[in-house]
Amino acid sequence: MKSPAYPIPDRLNVFLVLLVSVTAIGLLWLASHTNSWIATLIVCIVFSYAMLTNYALLHDATHDTLRSTTRANYWCGLITGIWFPVPFSMIHYTHRSHHRFNRTDTEMFDCYYPTDNRWLKSIQWYSILLGLFWPLIPIGALFIAITPSRLRSKLLSKADPARGLAYLATIPSDVVTRIRIEVVLIAIVFSALAWGFNLRLLPVLLCYACFSFNWSTRQYITHAFSDRDVINGAFNLRHNHLMDWILLHGQWDLNHHRHPEVSWYYLPRLTDSKDASKSYFGQYFRQWRGPMPVTTPAPEPLADDN
Questions:
Q1: Which one, of 195, 164, 29, lies nearest residue 92 by Cα?
Q2: Beta strand pairing status for 111-112 and 237-238?
Q3: Residue ranges of the alpha helices (H) in the chain?
Q4: CA end-to-end span of the chain
């Protein structure tokens, strides 16, 4: 439910959606037409940061806080999903699993029990940090789009619900239909861009490889080594003003988990600034030291209200 005390900044969000869309197209074109790989790499790095803003907008759309009306929120979510790329209907349906299972055992990548294989835990953790998390999302979307419901249910029947896979096993047919349409739309958009702007495959893949690393390595930064609490298991992190706006206040994740119905625009206002006492850079580099032993029991997941 949207919060009436914090009205959604509709015009600003529309402007940002259009801005990141134009920026994405321009940077993909520029990466495809530079004369040196160094210049291409620089463009790809810039692209990766533009897509962080795009993801922040997409994330708000999954909470229905990007636009004030359901239809407008869907269309803006659809556009931002194209640049990820992921069908908006899929991530809108599955993202709630993160809020339900945050800091439970099945979403605890940063810690390990004495009975766990520490090497496997470390491989899993560093795979996230090195960018191997992002490709699983478009691959998962293709899986949903091309598999019949009976086969999908059979393959995912024993999936862990905390990973979102259980939701995909029983995903409603109307959502699957939208996912399939959106996958086709994404393919059409990128095919049209490749034809109309003469995009080259390798530079485009390099753009998304840079984004994959940049996005994946940040996905757990606000949760790593936080309290084992479904709602309070996150941090508000202190960052510089430029990155604060690139991330659209995404480092205020504790505030977001406490108030997921509030737009990104207001997150820093929900608590005193001293609540962001932990350094973003300190937390980022702490991640690279690897998982740590579990010291507290797992919380119970939230009930699924949907």
A1: 164
A2: unpaired
A3: 10-33, 37-62, 70-83, 88-94, 96-101, 118-129, 136-146, 149-156, 165-169, 173-196, 201-216, 241-246, 253-258, 280-287
A4: 13
Dist CA 161 CA 301 (whole Å): 10
Separation CA 136–CA 288 (nearest Å): 21
Q: How confident is the model at residue 273, as a pLDDT?
A: 54
pLDDT value, residue 162: 45
Q: What is the pLDDT of residues 15-32, one digit of tens each?
A: 999 999 999 999 999 999
For 134, the token pair is: 């992002």
Taking residue 91's Cβ as centre, other Cβ atoms within 10 Å add up to 23
Place of tokens 């991530």: 91
Amino acid letter at 219?
Answer: Q
Looking at residue 251, its amino acid is: Q
Q: Which of 114, 109, 84, 126 is nearest to 162 (CA)?
A: 109
What is the block-wise mean pLDDT of the chain (306 residues), using blocks of 10 residues?
80 98 98 94 98 98 97 98 97 87 88 91 92 91 87 67 57 90 98 97 97 93 94 93 96 94 94 74 94 90 74
Give the helix/strand (H/E) hosting 109: none
Instruction: Give Rg (Cα) of the chain.
Output: 19
Unique residue bearing structure tokens 């899993």: 124
Residue 259 contacts residue 1 (beta carbons within 8 Å): no
> What's at 191, amino acid-wise?
S
φ, ψ of residue 111 to 5 degrees: the values are: -135, 165
| DSSP reduced 3-state for 117 | coil
b/e map of 206-221 (b: 16 or more CB within 10 Å)? bbbebbbbbbbbbbbb
**Domain residue spans in the chain?**
10-288
